[in-house]
Write a structure and sequence with these properties.
Its main location: other. The chain is mostly helical. The chain has 4 helices and no strands. The chain is elongated, with a radius of gyration of 17 Å. The protein starts with a helix and ends with a helix.
Length: 110
C-alpha cells in the first residue's frame, strides 16, 4: 500500500473539517498543516510532545480529583484520560507503520 505525504495531509485536512474543534484534534492538525516544509523528525517530535502533554494533563487531573479538588470534575478527568489514550494509540499505530515501511525498504533488492 502506497501512502504519499500530500495525500495523507489532504485526507487529514478533509477530516479536520468534519470534526468539531477541540484541544486534541485542532492542535495536532494545525501542527501538521503548519509543517509543510519542515523536517519529518521535527514533526514526529512535536507529535510525541503533544501526546506527552496530553498524558501529563490527564495524570495531573487524576491526581487533583483524587486529592478532592472541587474544580476538577469526574467527567473532565475521564475525557482527558480518553484523549490521552486515543493519542497514544494513534502514536503506536504510526510507529508500527514506520517500522513496517522500514522493513519493507530494507528487504528490497539492490
Amino acid at each position: 500500500m502506497q501512502i504519499g505525504a500530500n495525500s495523507l495531509l489532504q485526507e487529514m485536512q478533509t477530516l479536520s473539517g468534519e470534526i468539531k474543534p477541540n484541544g486534541l484534534t485542532s492542535g495536532i492538525t494545525q501542527q501538521v498543516a503548519n509543517t509543510s516544509g519542515s523536517d519529518f523528525g521535527q514533526l514526529l517530535s512535536q507529535a510525541v510532545g503533544s501526546v506527552n502533554s496530553l498524558q501529563a494533563n490527564s495524570s495531573s487531573m487524576q491526581t487533583r480529583l483524587d486529592m478532592g479538588d472541587t474544580r476538577v470534575t469526574l467527567s473532565d478527568t475521564v475525557i482527558a484520560r480518553e484523549k490521552a489514550s486515543v493519542a497514544f494509540e494513534a502514536t503506536v499505530q504510526v510507529r508500527n507503520k514506520l517500522v513496517e515501511a522500514y522493513k519493507e525498504i530494507m528487504s528490497m533488492p539492490v
